[in-house]
Design goal:
By secondary structure, the protein is of the alpha+beta class. The chain has 14 helices and 20 strands. A hairpin with a 5-residue loop joins strand 9 and strand 10. Helix 10 packs antiparallel against helix 11. The structure holds flavin-adenine dinucleotide (FAD). Belongs to the oxygen-dependent FAD-linked oxidoreductase family. It comes from Aquila chrysaetos chrysaetos.
Length: 440
């Protein structure tokens, strides 16, 4: 009975990857999803489940059957005593944040955007910052999975424990994530303070910064020594904001996009743009106070290409200085600002880039001013080389050039994940081109 639409074009948020699914489904129940899987099995089709479609890679693409989970977005249970919430996999975190706050609860950490689905963020290992905080999948205490055979599996530390360790960061290849249970914390407000510094100062006092602020991160402006340090910490002070349309939009968006577009004809301007905008927008102290999710989230206005690898935290200084030196030695290689540097606690999730080590994530970007791609190959390869040299592991949502051979070296538990995947999906129903590179 379930109806699939033909002719739908899927594009990710940044419009950098897309595909043309033969049939596009928006199921409203588990029975409908089962029907879709039956149909896929009969017609020998693959299936890709998507949430918010935000991943900056082809991880969510398929030309076979696509299941968009937006209509399976209910909050199923709030357990106030345990401070846990159980939701359907398709719920956007933006809706969950609001629902949780009605119950005096919140997620302890969030990424930069919330127009992403609960099952989607855990699928790729979304992270934020804070050395006492793990990546978002560490907040998951249970989930249910509908497998390729149509079986529903409940998973947690105590039930199907192996599948749970795999499914907390599932890559979309183990089945359809129907529900997720998150461990929450009492609702809280955050005080954000951003202030200017230098790369030398931050790298020389990294431990101090990490201790001083619970959610510490910094932005480095390539082709310069400039850094914007950002501290975010729980507070009881009343909300206040220093947002300004003029500086945030007129200057920080419209003027910047225009100048970045001009720089596509004169690449050497990028160096000047990075310094000029640091001086304009980041050279004085700025403070904001709001409910936690409004501070964790910020508006990512520019469509962009992005890479984000996690390296062992003790390699932060060496790796960043190598990237800086590489840019200085290759004047033709340009890098847009910022390089965003964040931190996460080590964990035990098999495919987590932070598996068994505290990590530093180093996020590089190249904007697409007015949709125009800017050459980035040299920068991308140089960055990947440095990350690999320091034992890096790429963010699963973001484009990278790694294949199975690399992942076997990077992840001690990779064989365990593969054997769970092969058991749950022996015919590869949930694979796509991206995942073939990971597993073959
Ligand atoms: C503007 C922007 C800001 C971002 N900020 C951050 C950030 O701060 N930190 C960070 O780490 N990342 C960040 N990202 C990346 C983003 O968090 C991840 O790409 C995340 O996976 C997106 O969630 P989604 O719901 O859009 O997932 P999608 O891109 O739709 O899917 C991701 C994966 O999950 C699978 N999946 C989704 N739902 C299900 C389901 N129900 N069952 C089975 N599989 C499923 C898909 O098959 C796919 O493999 C950002 C991306 C953008 C565009």
């Amino acid at each position: 009975q379930v109806h699939g639409q033909g002719g739908v074009k899927f594009q990710n948020w940044a419009k950098t990857y897309g595909s043309s699914p033969e049939l596009y489904f928006q199921p409203t129940s588990v029975e409908e999803i089962r029907e879709i899987l039956d149909m896929a099995r009969q017609r020998d089709k693959r299936v890709k489940v998507v949430g918010g479609g935000h991943s900056p890679s082809d991880i969510a693409c398929t030309d076979d059957f696509m299941i968009q989970m937006g209509k399976m977005n209910r909050v199923l249970k709030v357990d106030k005593e345990k401070q846990q919430v159980t939701v359907e996999g398709g719920i956007f975190l933006s809706d969950l944040n609001v629902e949780l706050s009605k119950h005096g609860l919140a997620l302890a950490n969030l990424g930069a955007v919330s127009e992403v689905a609960a099952a989607g963020v855990i699928g790729t290992g979304t992270h934020n910052t804070g050395i006492k905080h793990g990546i978002l999948p560490t907040q998951v205490v249970a989930l249910t999975l509908l497998t390729a055979s149509g079986e529903i599996l409940e998973c947690s530390e105590s039930v199907n424990a192996d599948i749970f360790q795999a499914a907390r960061l599932h890559l979309g290849c183990l089945g359809v994530v129907l529900t997720v249970t998150f461990q929450c914390v009492p609702q809280f407000h955050l005080h954000e303070v951003a202030f200017p510094s230098t790369l030398t100062e931050v790298l020389d006092h990294l431990d101090d910064h990490l201790q001083r602020s619970q959610y510490f991160r910094f932005l480095w402006f390539p082709h310069s020594e400039n850094v914007s340090v950002i501290y975010q910490d729980p507070t009881n002070k009343p909300p206040s904001s220093s947002a300004s349309w003029w500086w945030d939009y007129a200057v920080g968006y419209y003027l910047l996009e225009f100048l970045l577009w001009i720089s596509t004809f004169v690449p050497s301007l990028v160096c000047w743009i990075n310094r000029f905008f640091f001086w304009l927008l980041f050279s004085s102290r700025v403070e904001n106070i709001a409910i936690s999710y409004k501070i964790f989230n910020y508006e990512c206005r520019f469509k962009q290409h992005v890479q984000d690898w996690a390296i062992p935290i003790e390699k932060t200084k060496e790796a960043l200085l190598e990237l800086k030196a590489a840019l200085e030695n290759n004047p033709k290689m340009v890098a847009h600002y910022p390089v965003e540097v964040r931190f996460a606690r080590g964990d035990e999730i098999w495919l987590s880039p932070c598996f068994q080590r505290d990590s530093c994530y180093m996020n590089i970007i190249m904007y697409r001013p007015y949709g125009k791609n800017v050459p980035r190959l040299n920068y991308w390869l140089t960055y990947e080389g440095i990350m690999k040299k320091h034992g890096g592991r790429p963010h699963w949502a973001k484009a990278h050039s790694c294949t199975r051979k690399d992942f076997e070296k990077m992840y001690p538990a990779f064989p365990k994940f593969c054997s769970v995947r092969e058991k749950l999906d022996p015919t590869g129903m949930f694979l796509n081109t991206y995942l073939e590179k990971v597993f073959y």
